[in-house]
Each structure stands twice: as C-alpha cells, then as structure tokens.
Design goal:
758 residues; mainly beta; 22-stranded antiparallel barrel; six-stranded mixed sheet; 55% strand
C-alpha cells in the first residue's frame, strides 16, 4: 500500500467512526453540545479519558496531539492477562519478536512499535533499559499493574534514549484510603497455578499513612519438553500524605523468575525443489536440555511532590533497578553432524554446546519536574520544566564448552536428531569465552508548553537537550576488556497542533525528532556506533462520545530512522552508520462501550517498514524490515448481562490476527533458506471467556474461564535464519538436512480463576 492509499483508508475510517461518535452524542440544546467530562476509567468500562505518558501531565487524550492508547484494568481482568504481550495486543501497531511466554522458552523477546524493536520500557514514567531483548518487560508481573499506557512515535523529548517507534509505560497500583483486600487463584493448562493477593488501606487513624501490598506466585509447565516457569513477586508500597499539598511514596519490588530457556534448533530437510522445509511438525521437541534461567530483580523508588503555590508543583523521583540473571544455557547452534564422529556417514545428530552466563543489569535514575498552570491573556498554559539523569550498566561473563563452534565430539554434547533422548552425551568443561560491561550514562533538560488557545485550538511544543555517553568493553574475561567509548549531544524538538471543532472530534498533527540508543557495535574508523536518529510526521483524528464511554484514534505517520549500523563491505567485522529504515503506516484504535453492557476493543495497523539504505546482502534496500508484519488486527468484545447488578454473567470473544512476517536474516544466509517458507505466514487465533459474579454479605466473588487460541492453530511466532558455517547442512541417506531457529506460538490454553474481594 502506498502512502496515498494510507491517506485514502485514513479518510474512509474517519468518516465511518466520526458518524458513529456524532450520532452517539446527544446535544443538551439545539445550539450547544456538551463538553467531554474529564474523568479516569469509566467504571467497568474500556475507555480512558486522560493519560500521563505523552506529556508527563494528566491531560485529556482528546486534547493531546499525540497517539496515546491505554489498556485499562477491566480489559486486563476480562482477558486474564498474565503477560505483557497479551495486554499490548489491545493496541494497534505493536508486534513481538517471539511471543513472550517464558514457559515456551522465549527469554529475550522484545516489543516492536511502528516497526522498530525496543529494549526499553517505562515504569510509572521512569525508563528501564536492558541489553539484548527487554527481558524485564517480558518477565513483568501483572499483580500490581493498574493500566498499561502506550505512546506512539518518538518520545526522546521526555524520556531520552529510546527507540523512535514509541514507549510502553507500566502504571502500577497506588495505596488507597479505603480498605480493600482480594485473593485470586488461577489454574489452567500445562499445570499452571497462579495465586495473587492485593491489600490496601490506611495505617493510621488520620488516613495520612497508606499502604498497598501486591504479590503473586505462579508455576507451570509447557508443551515444549523440559519447559517450565516458576515466579515469585512481592510489591509493598507506602504513601505519606503531608497535609493537602505534599506527599511521599516509597515503593519496592522483588521478582524471582525461573524458566527454561529454549535455545534449540529447528531441523529442516531439503525437498525436491532444493528448498528447506520442516523435518518435523512437533511442538514438544526440544533438542536442548533443562537450561534454567533465573532472573532476580530488586526495584526501589522514592517519589515526592509538593504544591508550593496554586497551580505550581515540583516532583522528584529516585529510582534503582537491579537485575541478576544466570543460566547454564544449553544451545544447539553447533549444528547437525554425524552421530558417530569416527564415521562421517553415520546417522545425523544435533551438536550442542553449553554457554553458561552470569549477567548483572543495573539502572539508576532520577528526574526533577516543575509543572505550572497559568494564563497569558486568553491562552492557558501547562508548563513543564525538567531534567533527568540515567545510568545503565550491563556486566556479563559467558563461558563456553566449545568456544570455536566447530565439530568436536570431545566437548560437544550429541543428541539423536530422530530420537532426542535426554540428556544426550556429556558436555565438555566450560572455557573462557566472552565478558563485557557496557556503562551508558545520559542526562537531559527538557521544556514543554501545552497551550489551550481560543477557538478550541491546542498547541504542544517543546525540546530536549540530551547528552549521552556509551562504552562497551569486551574481552575473554573481565580482566581483559578493551573498547573506545562514544559520547554526544543533541537537541530534539517536538511540536503538535490540535483542533477540536466539536465536542466529539479532534484533528491533530505533530512533528518529532528522536535520538535513540547506540547498539555499541564497532564502526570503521574506530569507536562505537553513535546514537541513532529519527524524524516523524503524523496526522490523526480522535473521536469520543459525549459521556466518554467510546473513544477512537485514527492516525497516519511517516517515520524514518537513521544512523543504523550496516556492515562495511571493505572492512569485515566493522560497521558504517549509514543504514536507514523508513516506516509509514495507518493505525486505527476503537475502544469503549457500544451499548449498555457491550464493550469492545478493535484495532488495525498497516505498517510498511522498509530498508532504504543497507550494505547487508541478506537485507538489501527495498526489503521489508525484519520481524515486522505488514498487517495486524485485533478484536475483543464482551457483553455483561447485568452491568449494574451485584450478580450476572459476562461473556467475551476476540480474534488476534497478523499477516506474514519476514525473518530475522543473518548476513549471507543460504538462498535455500530464504524461500517463501522462511517468511512467517499470517495467522489468526480465537479467544473466548465466560465469567459469573455474585455477592455474599460483604464479599464479592467472581468465577471466570478463558480459552486462548481456542481452535489450537499451529503457527510460528519467531524465525531466525542461520549463518552459514560448518554444520549448517548434513547429507545422510540421500537427504540433506539443515536448520534454522524458530519457535511455535502458544497452543490452545485454558485458564480458570476464582476471585474473592472483601
């Protein structure tokens, strides 16, 4: 679809949704329409009126010239969301690199927004970075999550070094003055058991010291051999109210996530046409071993705010997030070779190596914001002046039973390709392989003004001055690290304009620049790759009914990312920062109440992300950007038989669908592996739910049953073509075998729940 077709579809969607919103808005008089009431989530509903992520101020979404989507608490409950990727399917323009379920062995997944993978996310507005896949986001526990907010497009002005596609903000529950207690017990497929508790209320009689405690413990197995997960999570929070103008919040989280990492190959066989196709269609196969990854996280935060004058508030947060990850990490990237090393014509076996790792990720951050509300003539201002400082460091040590990755039966473990009986032959002892540390320090100053102008015009304008320092030190051990750091400065502006000609519709446009994180790769001429750049142009229309129960956003955007490292053809092992990718697309989101008791979420995106400049022969200019499906669509709807009653049924159903996805293609992958089969085909899965609630005296009960992928569709959620090397192909018995790496998507899963609130 060309950009002109995006605009045509944009106009058609605007016409249809605008008619729906206008017809749902009932005027109070023939000449005056009511203004939208500023409120939070509609009780029991799917629509949210205000958000904080886009501006760092509590602003009505209908008055913000940005594409902001919110997944409210009721959606998380109805869908029994236990993973963050499940929640994000309720937002358009988001894809995932591997599906997200740690039970199925996807520990290094990442979220892809508007075509660009991100290794960062926000927690209550504070950026949390990670190295090589946002495991912190994918092992995120949902026990203390209130809502999930998503800001589309560049967010560097407020959050610094982030990818240009957007940011995900996890908003947690806060202590309340009204006592409330709940216990949830979930149970489901593959021996899943999950217990969640939530308690909040005042500690003292004056209700000035409040607490909240959230916790969960869950365990389960997997359809994949040896797969499992076991997670413990606790999150206590204290809030001190100092009069009516100041407050202090102290929070802590501890997470102990354990799961089996699936680093297995996916065997292929060459067909009569010379293409490689699957050798097996068995979701349970695992050519690796029990490779328990343990991720322990300790998070602490201190937030204080003080309204020192009418309309003026100062706020600061201090934040630390410490992550320790370990795993024996059995991988099968040794390839396929003879089961008898002394007989090159023997039956094929999978050669496996052990690569134990020990990683420490540390994030320290603080920000200080001054927010003021004032007027200059008819213009009303919301001014934000702030600064932040981040320090992220990842220190790791990897050993390897076969550092050279060549066939060596004395150190490789072998397992039969056709009958993989665990544990296979013994591994050799681990040897020094690679170690490193990568300190990244950044600080920034930002200024933003939101101006409510006459005639229902709203202006958003601001800029950020950013300084970054990045250094990746590598060696065989921590005692032999070498590198050349890189640093730089950049001014990144953002401007948006919105017009609200009627109470139910807003038209907006914005322009933003981004300065993203460096990947730390060495570049020609010495040093590391500098931060990436990006520019975006966006047009959009927002709709809302008069009561705010149904909202919609339709947007078209044109986003170009620059300074992407691409191989230097004249200097192997080094990169040039001349790569460029352009993503342009159409996004549509509709959520809320269509009729009393009938809620819906509907989203659609057409993402045309293509490489503009590249020296990589496996990813030439013009090809679709890796891991980005062109079409993504999701539908979820529920009907409550008695919306205001203490008892009643709630029924729901939905579909998650996406088009074909190109693979993660390493440089120079064999042509036989880049066939149409290597592109993940499109897939659609069906999800359903039924719930019943009732009340006994002062206790509220809820019984719920959800089924995801009800029809048990078989599909792949991830594919990565292998790099040609010894072992990438093996001939035996007149056949030629090869491999790549791919993971199946979630099978049919049943999840039940009993919930008690008192």
């Amino acid at each position: 679809m060309t950009i002109s077709r995006h605009y045509a579809a944009f106009a058609l969607l605007c016409s249809g949704v605008g008619t729906l919103a206008a017809n749902a808005t009932e005027p109070q008089s023939p000449t005056e329409l009511p203004k939208i009431t500023v409120h939070e989530t509609v009780e029991g509903g799917y629509s949210v009126s205000n958000a904080n992520t886009g501006t760092k101020t509590d602003t009505p979404i209908l008055e913000t010239p940005l594409n902001i989507q919110v997944v409210p608490q009721q959606v998380l409950l109805d869908q029994q969301v236990t993973r963050i990727d499940q929640a994000l399917r309720n937002v358009s323009g988001i894809a995932f690199t591997a599906g997200g379920d740690t039970s199925f062995g996807n520990p290094f997944d990442a979220v892809v927004l508007r075509g660009f993978q991100t290794d960062s996310h926000l927690r209550n507005g504070v950026r949390i970075d990670s190295a090589g896949g946002d495991t912190e986001l994918y092992t995120q526990q949902l026990a203390n999550v209130e809502v999930v907010e998503v800001l589309k497009g560049p967010a560097a002005i407020l959050y610094g070094a982030v990818e240009p596609g957007g940011v995900v903000n996890i908003v947690t529950r806060q202590p309340q003055a009204m006592p409330s207690y709940s216990i949830d017990q979930q149970f489901g497929s593959y021996d899943l058991y999950r217990t969640t508790i939530d308690a909040t209320g005042p500690i003292n009689s004056a209700h000035t010291l409040l607490y909240r405690f959230d916790g969960s413990y869950d365990t389960g197995n997997s359809i994949v051999d040896l797969g499992f997960h076991r997670d413990l999570f606790i999150a206590p929070t204290l809030k001190l109210l100092v009069g009516e103008l100041a407050q202090v919040t102290l929070e802590y989280e501890h997470k102990d996530a354990n799961f089996n990492g699936n680093y297995s190959i996916f065997p292929l066989i060459q067909d009569a046409s010379g293409q490689f196709v699957p050798l097996f269609d068995d979701r349970s196969l695992n050519f690796g071993e029990r490779s328990t990854m343990r991720e322990q996280t300790d998070l602490a935060g201190l937030l204080w705010s003080y309204q020192f004058a009418p309309g003026w508030t100062v706020k600061q947060q201090l934040f630390a997030n410490l992550v320790h990850s370990t795993a024996p990490q059995v991988t099968t990237f040794g390839g396929i070779g003879p089961s008898d090393p002394n007989n090159p014509a023997s039956a094929p076996a999978v050669y496996r190596v052990m690569v134990p790792f020990d990683t420490h990720d540390q994030t320290y951050a603080t920000y200080l914001d001054l927010t003021g509300h004032f007027a200059t003539g008819p213009a009303k201002h919301t001014l934000l002046l702030g600064g932040d400082w981040y320090r992220f460091n990842s220190k790791f040590v990897l050993t390897n039973s076969n550092p050279n990755y060549v066939f060596d039966p004395t150190v490789d473990s072998l397992i039969n390709l056709f009958n993989p009986v665990h544990p296979g032959t013994p591994f050799g002892p681990p040897q020094p392989y690679v170690a490193g540390t990568g300190p990244q320090v950044s600080w920034g100053l930002y200024l933003q003004d939101q101006v409510a102008l006459p005639k229902d015009w709203f202006l958003l304008a601001g800029a950020r001055y950013q300084h970054v320092f990045n250094a990746n030190y590598f060696g065989e051990t921590l005692a032999s690290l070498t590198s050349t750091p890189v640093s730089g400065d950049k001014l990144t502006p953002r401007v948006g304009l919105l017009w609200q000609p009627a109470n139910w519709v807003s038209l907006y446009a914005n322009y933003a620049e981004n300065w993203g994180p460096s990947n730390g790769y060495p570049i020609t001429g010495g040093g590391l790759a500098p931060p990436t750049g990006a520019t975006q142009y966006e047009l959009g229309v927002k709709f809302a009914t008069a009561d705010g129960r149904l909202t919609s956003t339709i947007a078209v955007y044109d986003l170009t990312k620059t300074n992407i490292p691409t191989p230097d053809p004249n200097n192997p092992g080094f990169d040039l920062v001349t790569g460029k990718v352009r993503s342009k697309g159409l996004e549509f989101d509709l959520q809320g109440e269509l009729a009393r008791g009938w809620n819906v979420i509907l989203n659609f995106s057409d993402i045309d992300a293509r490489i503009l400049v590249s020296n990589d022969p496996g990813n030439p200019p013009g090809t679709q950007w890796q891991q980005t499906p062109r079409i993504i669509a999701n539908l979820w709807t529920t009907y409550d038989t008695a919306p205001s009653a203490d008892k009643g049924f709630r029924l729901g159903a939905g579909v998650n669908a996406q088009g074909p996805t190109p693979p993660l293609n390493y440089t120079g992958a064999p042509a036989a592996q880049t066939s149409d089969y290597a592109q993940l085909p499109g897939v659609a899965t069906l999800n359903v739910m039924v719930a019943y609630r009732f009340t006994t005296t002062s206790t509220r009960w809820a019984l719920q049953l959800n089924a995801s992928n009800l029809l048990d569709r078989r599909y792949f959620s991830y594919i990565s073509l292998n790099n040609p090397q010894p072992g990438s192909t093996y001939a035996y018995g007149g056949n030629v075998y090869s491999y790549d790496r791919r993971l199946y998507g979630d099978p049919r899963t049943i999840l039940g729940e009993i919930s008690v609130q008192f």
